Each structure stands twice: as structure tokens, then as C-alpha cells.
Amino acid sequence: MMVDTFECIATKLDVRDFAQKEVPSEIKSRILESARLTGTGLNTQHWRFVLVQNKDNLKKLAEDSTSGGWVSGANFAVIVLTNPKYRFHLIDAGRVVQDMQLAAWNHGVVSCVFTGIKEEKLRNDFGIPDELSPSIIVGFGYPARTIKGRKNRLQLDELVFYEKYDSSRTA
Ligand SMILES: Cc1cc2nc3c(=O)[nH]c(=O)nc-3n(C[C@H](O)[C@H](O)[C@H](O)COP(=O)(O)O)c2cc1C
């Protein structure tokens, strides 16, 4: 499967129900490679990625979360660690998860992210050092069922201003 970039963005949904089917290691490598190739502010590449694919560890990851219990059913997950000494580190985190998610969807692999964590437990369980922040976690797998459904998004005319923001606009 090879999807046009716009089509890939337009059809991607965040999916939390996964089939019990293994994602081939070549696809996992492609996803990690897309992370590596993503740009960081000042090209610092301060991030590190923890690949979690062992079932018991995925369960642990779910237990260490407050909003990502679904990750126990994922085929694998990536914990994105970024260095908070850079003020833009969360922007870097957002860009890299999106790139990984799109690279995955290009191969029919769905994903979802979560940010709600029990930080101390997560740090202990996954050996995360003090200087790195577990900014966002992404779980991947094949979808449990056919992906359908419309995106629930605002319309462009509600989102876009031309040349200047207009606070009197009500739309
Ligand atoms: C910064 C960020 C944090 C998110 N945190 C969570 C989370 O903690 N748990 C979760 O299940 N989904 C989380 N999501 C997924 C959003 O709920 C999802 O992207 C949004 O509802 C749109 O989904 P859709 O693309 O399938 O329409 C997060 C998404 C983003 C971008």
C-alpha cells in the first residue's frame, strides 16, 4: 500500500482497537526510521525512543498510564523521550509522533497516542533518566476492524483567518 501524502493525512484516524496480528519488523523499522529522519529544533536530536513490543511490557505501559489503557492491546509502542531544557521540545515530540503515525498508516498500520502517565512508575519501569521527559507515547497495530467514520473537525472557514486574526468573527 502506498498512499499519497494528503490522502494519508485525510484518512488517518487515531485508532485504539488492534488486531492480534504481528506487524512485520521491516514496517517497525520504517516507522522508527521516520522518527529518526524527522527534524528537531536546531537539529539537536535530543529525543530518544523506547520501543516496547513485549506483551508484559505493553501491559505495564498500560498500567503506568491514566489515559492510554488501550495500549495493552497494541502490537508495539514507542515512548517518545524529549529533553525539556529545549523550550520547543514538545513541538518536536508532536512532529515525530505524527510522522511515525503517517508512516505506519502508509502500510495500513493504525495507531493512537496518549499523554496521561503515572510518571514515577513509568520512569522506574522503563529506566527513563531524569533529564529526559516521557512526552508522548504511541501505540501501533493492525486495526481490529475496518477503519471507517468521518473525521470530526471544524470547517476551514472557522479556523483560518486571512492576513490578520479577527476576534469579532463568530463563525
Ligand atoms: C497531544 C495529544 C494528546 C492526546 N492524548 C490522548 C490520550 O491521552 N489518550 C487517548 O486515548 N488519546 C489521546 N489523543 C488522541 C486524540 O483523542 C485524537 O487525536 C483526537 O480525538 C482525534 O482523533 P481522530 O483523528 O481519530 O479523529 C491525543 C492526541 C493528541 C494530539
Question: How does this model look, in words?
Answer:
- The protein is of the alpha+beta class.
- The chain has one domain (5-159): NADH Oxidase, CATH 3.40.109.10.
- It contains 6 helices and 4 strands, in the order ααβαβαβαβα.
- The protein has helices spanning 5-11, 25-37, 55-63, 89-105, 119-126, 156-159, and strands spanning 48-52, 76-82, 110-114, 133-141.
- The chain has a 4-stranded antiparallel beta sheet with strand order 1-2-4-3, with helices on both faces.
- α2 (25-37) packs antiparallel against α4.
- The mean pLDDT is 96.
- The structure holds flavin mononucleotide (FMN).
- Flavin mononucleotide binds at residues 13-14, 16, 67-68, 112-116, 151-152.
What oligomeric state best describes the polypeptide chains here? single chain
| Molecules bound to protein | flavin mononucleotide
Sheet-strand content, in percent, reads 15-25%
Number of domains: 1
Output the structural class: alpha+beta
Number of helices: 6
Largest sheet: 4 strands, antiparallel
> What is the rounded distance between the termini?
39 Å
- How many strands in all? 4
> What does the average pLDDT come to?
96
Radius of gyration: 17 Å
Helix content: 25-40%
Could you say what the CATH architecture is? 3-Layer(aba) Sandwich
Summarize this structure as a short list of keywords or feature phrases:
171 residues; alpha+beta; NADH Oxidase; 6 helices; 4 strands; 15% strand
